[in-house]
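Field log, afternoon session.

UNIT: design team B
ACTIVITY: writing a sequence onto a fixed backbone
BACKBONE:
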């Protein structure tokens, strides 16, 4: 009976499942939802893929940006509404933001990331109703040390506050002011072709 109760929670999508990941490229939206069916890849049978509805099962992933890092990579949280095989990996790759370290659905990592322990995906939070007491239980798992160190990597996060976008040229600093004794907010203007961009940085001192 208890197992069925947990299965029912999965069936009605009431279990909270949150993951954290590092993905390639800069997401334009701070939050988003990917609602695309997933099934077996038609050619590579060890892979899953976004497929036509009749050839797969509905899969829904909600994501939000935790940090844009250096804009070549983003640190994100993903919350699963469904639980398909490789769901986050397939969904993020389908919108051109594959997970760093995921050689099955994304590019082979560059030399500086050769020591990665697989794809940068961590199961952060699991929440559910206890099948006996009906009490809501939420368990949180801290990031593994290699993940923490990776977020500090200068190739991921530019701790100096300089943006590292390819083909961008700094044409001036609009302003920089001391918000308080521990925080400096800076605005920089960038040009790419005929377009101009304004980026804000908040640096902890």
């Amino acid at each position: 009976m208890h197992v069925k109760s947990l299965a029912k929670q999965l069936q009605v999508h009431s279990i909270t499942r949150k993951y954290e990941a590092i993905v390639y490229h800069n997401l334009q939206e701070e939050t988003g939802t990917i609602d695309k069916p997933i099934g077996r890849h038609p050619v590579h049978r060890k892979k899953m893929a976004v497929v036509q509805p009749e050839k797969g099962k509905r899969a829904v992933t909600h994501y939000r940006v935790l940090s844009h890092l250096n804009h070549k990579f983003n640190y994100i949280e993903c919350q699963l509404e469904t639980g398909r095989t490789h769901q986050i990996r397939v969904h993020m790759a389908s919108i051109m933001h594959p997970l760093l370290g995921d050689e099955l659905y994304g590019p082979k990592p560059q030399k500086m990331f050769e020591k990665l322990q697989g794809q940068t995906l961590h199961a952060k939070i699991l929440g559910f109703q206890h099948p006996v007491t009906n009490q809501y239980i939420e368990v949180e798992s801290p990031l593994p040390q290699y993940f923490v160190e990776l977020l500090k990597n200068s190739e991921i996060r530019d701790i100096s506050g300089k943006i590292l976008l390819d083909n961008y040229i700094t044409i001036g600093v609009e302003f920089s002011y001391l918000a308080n004794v521990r925080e400096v907010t800076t605005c920089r203007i960038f040009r790419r072709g005929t377009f101009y961009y304004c980026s804000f940085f908040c640096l902890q001192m």
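LOG NOTE: The two ends are 55 Å apart (CA to CA).
NEXT ACTIVITY: expression trials, pending approval
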